[in-house]
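Appendix B, Record 12. Input sequence as logged:
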Amino acid sequence: MRVKGQQGQQGQQRRWAYGLCVGALCISMLAGCGKSQPAEITAHGKPLSHWLAAGQSPPDATARKQAARILGNVGAVDPGIEPALTLATKDKALQVRQEAAAALQKMRKSK
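Logged structural output:
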């Protein structure tokens, strides 16, 4: 047999627990509503910005060729890739121009 004081106390504990659950649910839902920064795209363990810069700056034609190949494999996920590859088609090294042309062709086929 329950005493009236115990029933009131149990009801109060239930309401408190219910309020706690609702509050936790609201907080967890709101936590997902914020705008998050998209993660920078990486290729071969380096950010895309590295490959965009590597396609223009190194004096080593092999590094520029590698950058063109990797940018072509990444595709048109960044608006700077196609212009960088187009510029690479005018590179002084034949192997870089060829790689850049192949990369552009690959990107255009996938569109």
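The chain has five helices and two strands.
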